[in-house]
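Second attempt. The first submission of Site-specific integrase had a stray character pasted in from the spreadsheet, which I only caught after the job came back as garbage. Lesson logged: always re-copy from the clean sequence file. Corrected sequence (371 aa) follows.
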Amino acid sequence: MPKKSNVYYDKETKTYYSVASLGFDKITGKRMQKKKRGFKTQKEAKDWHTETMAKHSKKAITNGIKLTFKMFLDNYYIPHYEKTVSARTFYTFSSNLKRLAYFYDMKIVDIKPIHVGYWQTELLKEELSNTYVRLLHGTLVSIFNFALKLEVIYENSATKLGNVSKKRQEVDFWTVEEFQTFISSFDLNKYKERLYYTAFTLFFMTGLRKSELQALTWQDIDFSDNSLMVNKSLYYKSKNDWIINPTKTITGIRKIYLDKTTVKILSDWEKWQKVENNDFVFSQKGSPMSPTSFQYMLKKHCELVNVKPIRIHALRHSHASLLLSLGMNDLELQNRLGHTNISTTLGTYSHLRPTAMKEVADKLDGILSIK
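This time the job returned cleanly.
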């Protein structure tokens, strides 16, 4: 006889039992279940499960009729989500919640695809980036999925409508010449200038993420091996409030080999930085670097030498562009940048090699011998 879902056989009593999942407790976040044993047949156990779930669903949806989106967010989703993500991810999520205010006073069971569509349109009217609107939609999908799991709603209106279309984002980056012009504007006789000179060089020559560079300690630098180890990231709120986290993914942990020039720049900086007696490679009076300080100094020095300003993350793109121009393949680039999937690498940087397909065709010349 085929096994029925949610029905189990007890070998000791030689009877069947069933387990009904009733969602999660709003206070503890723990799964709530109802179990009954002693059924003589699978059918009896299955009938009990069906009846129990029907009663619970009716009660949950009735409660959902009284529940606004904001009430569900505050009392159910946020307490659950905060326990499952890093402090940095939760901070980003919290800062995005204001974009969901359109739904706050609506009953969660009344939110339909037409409402989600209107919300998307209004966001795009604000000239928010396509990528950001897609991210917000993903947040809404997650919230509704959790409501589905708790059986407060019976369909996900955000999933039903779908996300806004994805647009290719142009990758901004500097050429080697632009970076050299920019970096030449720093006065290496001044402590603060040398600090940023070293940091920007490391960004450009390694492709480190900002949070990875902020977390670097001297123990991560191996001068005998000309390498550095990426094994953590830093979440910064203020000079007195910051957290060291593991890298976001396993592939984020990686060893990066350095060129001799970058090693020399780091070695020189170590001698200067010992004055502060601090373990962070880059710090301000013993505290990690503020992420906004990098962007401020970049903009300031761009203006000094008339170089187009870019975001700090674009230095990572600049490194990728440099490596591609030197002939590095996609898998090697993925490993150096710490991407989880090769698709991320290809999707972001493949267009930086417009001649790649022609090069492939040229290499295929002469492979076949046709009479």
